[in-house]
Structures are given as C-alpha cells and as structure tokens.
Amino acid sequence: MPHDHLSPSGHPYRKDDDHPLTYWQTMEIAVRELLVEKQILTPSEITEQIDTMDARSPANGAAVVARAWVDPDFKARLLQDASAASREMGFDLGPLHLIAVENTKEIHNLIVCTLCSCYPRNLLGLPPDWYKTRAYRSRAVREPRKVLEEFGLTLPKETQIRVHDSTADMRYIVLPARPDGTEGLTEDALAALVTRDSMIGTGLPRQP
Predict the structure, then answer these.
(1) Is 86 a catalytic residue?
(2) Count of domains in the chain?
(3) Mean pLDDT in residue range 118-144
(4) pTM
(5) 163 φ/ψ angles, rounded to the nearest 5 degrees
(6) Taking burial as the number of CB atoms within 10 A of a residue's CB, which of 14, 36, 180, 198 is the most buried?
(7) For residues 201 and 192, what is the distance between their CA atoms, to the nearest angstrom?
(8) Residue 113 catalytic?
(9) How many other CB atoms are there within 10 angstroms of residue 119's CB atom?
(10) Do both 46 and 98 map to the same domain?
(11) Choosing from 9, 44, 86, 117, which is the catalytic residue?
(12) Which residues share a beta bridge with 164?
C-alpha cells in the first residue's frame, strides 16, 4: 500500500466524518445554551438527564414483566394502568399513557407505530432500526402473521394476533406469557428471560 494512504500512526487513512450541523442540532445547542444562561438548568443537570436517557434499556421493561409474573396484584395493576404500575418500580413515563397487553394461548399481541416510531423508551431503550422502517410499519398491520414468521415466530393458526398502533401520547408494552418450567426461578432470573422483542411482540421470552 502506498505510504500516502497511511496515517502518521501507520494505519490506513480515513477521512474525518465531520459535517455541518443540521438545523435541529443548531436549534438544540441554542436552546440548551439559553436555558443555562437564564439559569433554568445547569450544565450538570443537563448531563445528568442525558446519562439517565442513555441508561434506558430493555432491562427496565424486563424487570416490570418479571414483577408481573411473580406478583398477581402488581400484574392486575399493570394491566389496569401500566403507567402507574411502572412508576411503582421507578420508571416514570411522564405524561405518556402506557398500556400493557397480555399474551395468552389464545391471543398474541404485536406493537407497531404506523406513523413514525413512537416507542416506550423509558422501559425499552432506543427502538431497533427495523421498528422504524416503513416496511415493518405497514406490513405489521396488513400481514402480521407473515411478519412474525419472518422474525422466526410461527404461531398456531387458532391464535388470534392483535396489532396495537402506538401514538404520540400513548405507548404499548407486551406482557409475554411466562415460560413453562420457571416456577422456582427468582424475579431476577425471570427478568433475564425477557427479551426486547418479546415486549414488542415479535418474539417470545427465552426458555430457562
């Protein structure tokens, strides 16, 4: 390889991926600096909030599901008001209305956001790339059984599939059925079986 293709460190040269700020990036910086200047927020408060947002992951939702599996009273509260039940465990969705839908032998629930990519990020973290694609958003409604098969999930023909469409102020989370053979597992061990996809409806929990 010619030396002019090497960086000073000896590695292959790669161009910087710097690019001009977008309109929204510029707007975010301006608003953030204004909030600090007006002493509405401090830089440390902003950093703390960013860290909190980055820490969101499917483990939050898995903890909620596992609690519902072991605590019938909590499960009843979750199905009645998922926002309030999640707050009991320290997961606050703010003004968003969260609805928990339960999978049974007769019914399998699938979550989609046909307009954009509304998603319960406080419980599941960032949405997967496929969740935001136009193909998933349209086909999940039109042919949900085929979409599930492409995820590797083949359901019995007698199982009814219900598709739930999230909105700007309403989110859904699937309460998957507890796997058989998990009667002796602790709540933490149960949470480890709960996958992100099982809380969207495109998958099932892991087997013990």
Answers:
(1) no
(2) 2
(3) 94
(4) 0.79
(5) -105, 130
(6) 198
(7) 17
(8) yes
(9) 21
(10) no
(11) 117
(12) 111
